[in-house]
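Hi R.,

Here's the chain you asked about this morning:
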Amino acid sequence: MEVIKNQIDDLNIELTIALKAEDYAEQERKRLAAYRRNADFKGFRKGMVPPTLVKKIYGEQALYEAINGVVSEQLDKFIKDNDLHILGEPIASESQKEQEWKDGNDFEFKFDLGLSPAIDIDVTKEDKIPHYKIEVTDKAKAAMKDSILRQYGQLEEGEAAGEEDYVVVDFKQGEKTVEGVYVAVDKVEGDARKNFLGAKVDAKFDINVNEAFTNETDRASMLKMKKEELAALDPVWNVTAYASSFSGIISQDTRKPIPSPTMNPHGRSTPYTSRNISILNEPPRSRHSSGFRANASTIISRSLRRANTSMVL
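And the predicted structure, written out as tokens:
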């Protein structure tokens, strides 16, 4: 195994990790053994499937997992041993060559590492730093409280859509139908908002989606199509409200997460996700970043896709 450092400049490193078959063979053997212990094939007792059959079925997956483990370990070791402070995470280098994912082959992975620049701040006793005393008004507190309750609120069925509610609708145009779209009433633009405001179950009306949703990214997501396809699209769609309005407000004593999925009156399951909500009042909650070793797995996954392999990831 070789780990080769190429210092591009003060803040950039290209790291090459070259593996030979013996470097990952033991890890591959262990993973195949684990697959065999749990393999449950018709005609064989559990754990007694012939190794050749296990390798035929799980060989590529075991090879990927073994190599991923070795590469992740070497990346982590290099960064710790050299006390590097990197920005973000290592990314697959543009100079990465395609790999032939075959057992026994040698493999070479190239990663770009961006380093944090050294910052030297000379602070003395004479330096003064301003201290700001921020007064939070009752109005600001109320707005923040309302925002938090709305973000973590539980959707409840209402009689008619209010200004701050959602309406669950189907969009239909000829034979094309987009089902289960959550529309935030206060984000609808122009005269189209009047149609959504006060909408009840089974309300039907036509809208020009170009005028009602001017943001192309939101409009494409709502209609479940690519942005490039919007230009050739007839902007007038028929809208049917099949579920009454929903409010995102919850009481102080009922802090329940937004349910997913919810079942609409037609019996269809409509998950409450950013994919089928046209526009949200609140940004999605942040995700916890995964550990470095998991990120290394993502890097190799990108490399696999770039190589157009048939590997099961």
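Residues 68 and 256 are 39 Å apart (CA to CA).

Let me know if you need anything else.
M.
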